[in-house]
Each structure stands twice: as structure tokens, then as C-alpha cells.
Amino acid sequence: MNNPIIKLIDVTKRFADNLVLKGISLEVNAGEVVCIIGGSGSGKSTLLRCIDFLEHYDSGEVLVQGRMIGYGADPHGNFIRLPERVVQQDLANVVMVFQQFNLWPHKTVLENVMAPLRLVAGMDRAQARDKALAVLGKVGMAHKADAYPATLSGGQQQRVAIARALGREPKIMLFDEPTSALDPELVGEVLKVMRALADEGMTMVVVTHEMGFAAQVADKVVFLANGLIEEQGPPSALFGAPQSPLLQSFLATWTERNGGVTGA
Amino acid sequence: MFDMTVVLDYRGALLHGLWMTAWISALAIVLGLVIGVLAAIARVSSHRLWRALAAVYISALRGTPLLVQLAVIFFMLPLIGVQLPALLAAIIALALNSGASQAEILRGGFATLPPGQTEAAWDIGYTRWQVLRYVQLPQVLRATIPALVNETIDIIKNSSLVSTIAVTELMRVAHTYSSTTYRPIEFFLAAGLLYLLLTLTVSQAGRYLERRLRHA
Ligand SMILES: Nc1ncnc2c1ncn2[C@@H]1O[C@H](COP(=O)(O)OP(=O)(O)OP(=O)(O)O)[C@@H](O)[C@H]1O
Ligand SMILES: [Mg+2]
Description:
Structural class of chain A: alpha/beta
Strand content of chain A: 25-35%
Strand order of the largest sheet of chain A: 8-9-10-3-11-12
CATH class of the largest domain in chain A: Alpha Beta
Order of helices and strands of chain A: EEEHEEEEHEHHHEHEHEEHH
CATH superfamily of chain B: MetI-like
CATH architecture of chain B: Orthogonal Bundle
Shape of chain B: flat
Low-confidence stretches of chain B: none
Distance between the termini of chain B: 56 Å
Low-confidence stretches of chain A: none
CATH class of chain B: Mainly Alpha
Number of helices of chain A: 9
Helix content of chain B: over 70%
Strand content of chain B: under 5%
Largest interface: A-B, 28 and 21 residues
Oligomer: heterodimer
Bound molecules: adenosine-5'-triphosphate, magnesium ion
Radius of gyration of chain A: 19 Å
Mean pLDDT of chain A: 94
Radius of gyration of chain B: 20 Å
CATH architecture of the largest domain in chain A: 3-Layer(aba) Sandwich
Structural class of chain B: mainly alpha
CATH superfamily of the largest domain in chain A: P-loop containing nucleotide triphosphate hydrolases
Number of strands of chain B: 0
Number of helices of chain B: 9
Number of domains of chain A: 2
Shape of chain A: globular
């Protein structure tokens, strides 16, 4: 029996009277790459953000490495919100990479990567610097260590953001449309880094519109529609023989706009 | 009959007044910044009580004249048994007054920060305090330097009001000697020039700081 490293059980989330996730159950095994696809507003980001508790789900369970995220029982057995530090501890192996990079603009590339190593991992300056330069090297950005984010292209910024995440030595990386804010010619360099991570066995959950990436790299593709998992399976099945009419029309629209699924 | 040289005989007293004005203002602005940061945070806190307290504090101190605030602290607190020396009362009143203005300035600064930066910091393991200290405040302070410099200049000018409770700062000195020498024009002009010197220094320092902190 392999235990899934991430497990969602009947997760729901509402914003005011808008029920955005209507009961999501999903398993991700260690080392797997799971791509989440679906139309705008279908709940992809919300689902991803529930995993690392950037959104607080309303019911169901999110389990990461067997631990329930965000909620627990007090000594009397009552269901409670866990303190933030506990939540962060439970999520120590999970990091998110955002569509808008979210680098800190007042810090250089090196400082962006070093700061969490100093403040969270407690490394001394020299250790943090070595580690930061190593992860920056890994994404091909060591030569820009002293640049400020604003002077970099979107693709470069996203690679720095990935390096910052890698500094925390995560076991699980969540990507929310990491290439959607990029000019088309810059998408490739980021996908290449992500592919390399996948090859190294990183567990990845990726919300993406890059169907080529999903087709080639994903172990499993999840199609979300109206807050529910409409269909999931290996990419060959989802892209080759979609069952759900919603997925069929989603893919048809996508193909119309972009050409075949095998590109990228 | 106008003769600026008379003030030269009193330059020691005037410079002492200038020095008092400078450090009273400096203390008020720094304390005000601390109060302002706390009030700005309370203003957007998730606790209703904190939000309400901060809102009341800010509107009360921004909506009443400094002279009234000085009077309340200096003359009314003794009625409930709190006796403050004039100098301390002056600094407290100026700091509270400036804290309310700085809270509003900083709140504007916080509002312009993209929430994603904070989210990324929390996600990567920063505590709330670290997010504030290392992500938000450096950027907010940088973005609000021009407004904070203006606030400092306001405080320097407003500090002249503490002369009313017998604190011997620049205005008080000018006032005293203008009556003993019957040379009000010369002394108030001298005081004005010294205030101008102080405020120009502050605005130049602000500009320098802004330039230093601006990057590509
Ligand atoms: N913080 C929020 N407050 C209120 N409503 C929200 C919030 N975040 C998301 N929603 C709503 O939840 C629904 C799902 O949003 P979500 O961002 O998860 O969609 P998505 O699948 O990621 O879409 P996209 O492809 O456009 O990024 C949308 O109707 C959205 O308006
Ligand atoms: Mg989204």
C-alpha cells in the first residue's frame, strides 16, 4: 500500500453564497505530477490554495503526508482551527509558485532566495548564500543574483520564484498557472525547469493551460468543472478519449484556439 | 530702526530653543511612527475591537486642534491625578497627534502592496511578524517617505504650539526676548529663519533618503 502524499476528501469551499468547490476528492502519490485543467472560474486556483491553506476550506479534509491541514481537535475533542504556526509546520514540505511570481521587489534576486533561508530555515549568512546560489544555478539564474526583480523578464522572475521555493527543500510543489503571465516566447524556459523538477521526482500539482506540458509530463490530469472533478485519469485517456461532454467541448475549444494538444 | 544684529546677542538662547524644537519634534515623530504603525495595523486587524479603537483614536486626534489636545493632556490629566511635566506633556501630545496622521499615511501604503507578496511570505513559512518586518514595512516606509517627510515638517511647525504650556523651545524663546527687548520683528523673523533652516534640512534629508532607496 502506498499512502498518497496529498489526499483530499470531499472538500468544499464557498465564498459568501458562491459554492466554489462542491466536494473534491483527490489523491496524489509521492513523485507524481498532477495537472489540473478546466475553464476560468471552475475553481482550480481555489482547490490548489486549499491544499496549502491559503484558502480555508469549509468542510471535508485536506491531508498532507497524513496530517490534516488547518483543522484539528482540541483536548475535548472539539473541531478547531489550528494555530497558524502549527499549520505552517504541517505545510513545511509544501510550497506554492504563483502566476504573478510574488517576488519581493525591494530585495535583489539573491536576497529574495536568501531571506527565507535565514528567517525560516535559520541558516547563517554564509550557508544561506551558498544554498541560494545553488538553487539559483539550478534554474539558470545565478548570473542575475544581484539584479532586482523589476529588471528581469517574466520568465526570469518566475524561475527566481521557483528557486526561492526550492530553497525550502519542498517535497511538494504547487503551481498556479506559472506561465500564464508570461509572453509566449518565455513560457518554454519555465516549463523546462518544471520538467526537470518532475524528472527528479518532485511531487507537483500544476494548474495549467499548457496542455502540451500536461500531456507530456503529467501522471494524472484532473478536469475541473463547476467546482467538481468532472473527469480524471492519465493524460492519454483524458486527451485521447475524453468521456465527459464538458471535457470534450473544453478540449475542442482549446484545440480551436491553439492547435493540437501535443505541441509545446 | 530694524536691526537684525540685536538677535545676535541672544544667539545662545535662540540656538538652544532651536535645539529643543529639533529634539522634541524628533522624539514626537519617532514615537508617532511607532504609534502610527500600531494603529495602522490595528486599523486593518481582524479583531473588531482593535479596528474600532484605532478608528476612534485616529478620527479623534485628526479631528481636533493640537492646541486642544495639548490642553487636555497638560491641564485636564492633573484633574484625574496625572501630573505631567510640561515637556513630557508636549512630547506625548505631539506624538499622539502625529501618530494618528502617520497611521493614515501608512494605511495608504499598506493598501498599495499587492497581497500576493504577503501570501508568498506566509506560504514559505514567515510568521506574521516576519511578514510585517521584512516584506511589508520596508516597502510601505519607502513608498510613504515623501508623506512622512511632510508630516515631520508639520510636526516641527506645530511644535511651536507647545510654547503655550511653557516649554522653552524656539517659539517660546523668541516670544520671551521679543517682549523683554521690544524687538518682536527681529526675534520672530529670526525664529522663522531657524524653523525654515530645520524644515529645509529635513526635506533635503528626505530627498536624499528617497534617492538612496530608489533602485532600478
Ligand atoms: N477571494 C475570493 N472571494 C470571492 N470569490 C472568489 C475568491 N476567489 C475566487 N472566487 C470565486 O471563486 C470561483 C472560482 O475561482 P478560481 O480562482 O478558483 O477559478 P479558476 O478555475 O482558478 O479560474 P481561472 O482560470 O480564471 O484562474 C470564481 O467564481 C471566483 O470569482
Ligand atoms: Mg486561477
